[in-house]
Amino acid sequence: MECCAPVIGEILRLMYESTFSRVANAIKFKSNVKALNESLERLTELKGNMSEDHETLLTKDKPLRLKLMRWQREAEEVISKARLKLEERVSCGMSLRPRMSRKLVKILDEVKMLEKDGIEFVDMLSVESTPERVEHVPGVSVVHQTMASNMLAKIRDGLTSEKAQKIGVWGMGGVGKTTLVRTLNNKLREEGATQPFGLVIFVIVSKEFDPREVQKQIAERLDIDTQMEESEEKLARRIYVGLMKERKFLLILDDVWKPIDLDLLGIPRTEENKGSKVILTSRFLEVCRSMKTDLDVRVDCLLEEDAWELFCKNAGDVVRSDHVRKIAKAVSQECGGLPLAIITVGTAMRGKKNVKLWNHVLSKLSKSVPWIKSIEEKIFQPLKLSYDFLEDKAKFCFLLCALFPEDYSIEVTEVVRYWMAEGFMEELGSQEDSMNEGITTVESLKDYCLLEDGDRRDTVKMHDVVRDFAIWIMSSSQDDSHSLVMSGTGLQDIRQDKLAPSLRRVSLMNNKLESLPDLVEEFCVKTSVLLLQGNFLLKEVPIGFLQAFPTLRILNLSGTRIKSFPSCSLLRLFSLHSLFLRDCFKLVKLPSLETLAKLELLDLCGTHILEFPRGLEELKRFRHLDLSRTLHLESIPARVVSRLSSLETLDMTSSHYRWSVQGETQKGQATVEEIGCLQRLQVLSIRLHSSPFLLNKRNTWIKRLKKFQLVVGSRYILRTRHDKRRLTISHLNVSQVSIGWLLAYTTSLALNHCQGIEAMMKKLVSDNKGFKNLKSLTIENVIINTNSWVEMVSTNTSKQSSDILDLLPNLEELHLRRVDLETFSELQTHLGLKLETLKIIEITMCRKLRTLLDKRNFLTIPNLEEIEISYCDSLQNLHEALLYHQPFVPNLRVLKLRNLPNLVSICNWGEVWECLEQVEVIHCNQLNCLPISSTCGRIKKIKGELSWWERLEWDDPSALTTVQPFFNPVREVPLLIADATTQML
């Protein structure tokens, strides 16, 4: 028995455990059901979270993918089995619950095991699928280049600004746009976790835009695998999901040639993913605009010092040697700061020690000759991509700009007139319409970085390398572009072998030609443009030379010393459209022009002709005549001008000839009534003899004009920004004329040395008629009877404030010169000016002026942007009511104060003008406070004497530190008292 005891004990133990387990399972039936339901829900969710992105990722790892597929299959089976058992337990009786409970526990164990394996899969896939935040992009850095560093800083500022969701980086080919954004990308990588983006994606787009290829680059950074058979739409959805998971992303699209629809690529809109940004680089500003960028950063060429350093880096130490350095610097400068050109030329000259070789290269570059093949391949071919992108019309317009010398600022109107003469501008009805179309083309070429702003207003120029490229196109072409360009090269003579029958354009302008050769008649049979202007030594143009160009459309002899022009009947220039003889100051007479049947433009500005050109009245297509600055023009025969039926522009600005009304003029001379007969006239600039014209309100033909400049009285010109329709009255008693009818059409009025202004103003006020078109008013050399003003002020101000007439409701500019006002308020109150639109005030040599606004005047001038005051000895302040609670000029951008010895203050202590950008204070020694604080973030330049700057007192001590970098000291010279200028002119 004793030996059986252990066996019996074990049997009883097993029976107890089995029974206990059954009882326990029966008791825990409900809890087991609940636990299985919860685990089953987690497993189902886990299986669903094994996203398509994870599956496609694992195609790179076949064994791992097989394990995942097996897990998913097992999970599916267990989930199905568990759901089936859970359904069965509903109909399970109490007696069967222990068995059912045991089965549920078994399935629960399987579910938990699969759940554990699934979690391990997810963790492993999360590690595998997490892309590097920023990948290094190989390339040189620009961090040590001044200009590039500034542009990089602008982009970085944009990345931190909530207003800049999309940033455009644009510039000409080879200027370094890609290098700039590569540097940005790599700087972000160096910053690691401190940079703000969860993911930075650098994508190369290129000219041949392939949406699929761009999507593939983005998908690769997101570790999304792409399938050949997968549609762009489906891939876009997966990219969208991937990017939306990122906290913030930065997408850099490099080399964009056409606008891209980011939605079609799957890029979330920036408002959907706050803080995310898109940067794109393009050669074309228009692409940036089309893609609705919020900030556009133009990449400019390198500064000279940075360009030299880059050249040295590529050319080697030889360029620093004494015998090469000077000529090497000149070669570097010929590259115009364009990095691509600097690298190409520098590399080609690397290690070259022979000075003659360097001189040869410099000579070739200065003549726009590609002296090595790599210049064509590495510089011109990339630029040709931009050129090929242009429409044919724009290509011709671009090439024509290369006819001008290197670094030449081209007048936009001049080049557009060339385009019009060549037939590049469509016939849009009027010359002004065609001119506007041409200006639009100029702007588009600027947006393509093929033209840039010139040194003067309304001019453009070509970058040296771009011009070399254009000349390369023209010289190597044998089609309609084939041209000879030798402008600005110091040429002293032109040989016949330089010319060829295939040439379409010939530019010999700005040289030292003294004579021109006789050529074979009709030798250059295709040449339509011949530019000879700027040859100051040229005294004669032989008939034999011009006869070689029978198809000329444009002939420019401006700035030469020719005394006469060959007989037009002998020249047979039957296709000539435009003849430019501007500033031929020796030219006193022209032959009859009646045989130039297609002539539309004649420019005689600055010539010494004595009489009106003959034969123009026979030309049915003639549209533009420039007789400005013809200081010796004395005669215009009657009934000639009225026959110029197609004339659209008559410019006689500063001409000696003065027009008179019928009955006043000398017998046989033209009268102003003839001008009224010109139904197509749109632009007119003339000088009228005296006031009778102003008395004739029947001259309503004035309202047909789109532009006019009428000078009544003595010759007087003062340019403003609103000269579109300008009336100048000089040395007349204006109380004897009625100008109200003319002011209705006028945008700018100038009164110089006029009497009776008080009476004229009184009449205008009493007529209760404002002039809404007038935007600029100039009053100069006028003594005003202030007693009369008081009377007129009381007349106007006696009305209810709402009834007070604002005589000039849209006035934007006001110029006062040598006017004896004590305050600007006198003029403002007298005319009832509310000054709501005034942008510019310019006051000079008003010796009695003590303040702008007096104590009675508490108004602000809300839109005033510029104040310029000089030589006003009595001026003490700008506003007498210095305790006014807000700046009276809240939007002032430019403040220029010169030679104001008694000026003490311009603002309250501590007052800040937040919009100030430019300040100039010269010889204002008592002024010791500026309305500037450390919050003035728009300041660009402050100009003044160093001694004055050091005496300034600052309410905000940190303001000095903030604006000190923008201070430009001027040379201190004694105050000049302009006695001569105080005399009435």
Brief account:
The chain is of the alpha/beta class and 985 residues long. The protein has 31 helices and 30 strands. The strands form 4 sheets. It has a 20-stranded parallel sheet. Strands 2-3-4-1-5 form a 5-stranded parallel sheet. A 3-stranded antiparallel sheet has the order 6-8-7.
Features:
985 residues; alpha/beta; Rossmann fold; 20-stranded parallel beta sheet; 5-stranded parallel beta sheet; 31 helices; 30 strands; repeat; Disease resistance protein At4g27190; nucleotide-binding; coiled coil
Structure explained in plain terms:
The protein is α/β, with parallel strands linked by helices and 985 residues long. The chain is 36% helix and 13% strand. It has 31 helices and 30 strands. The strands form four sheets. The protein has a 20-stranded parallel sheet. It has a five-stranded parallel sheet with strand order 2-3-4-1-5. Helix 23 links the parallel strand 16 and strand 17. Helix 1 crosses helix 5 and helix 8 runs parallel beside helix 9. The C terminus is likely disordered. It comes from Arabidopsis thaliana. Disease resistance protein. One of its GO terms (biological process) is defense response. Belongs to the disease resistance NB-LRR family.
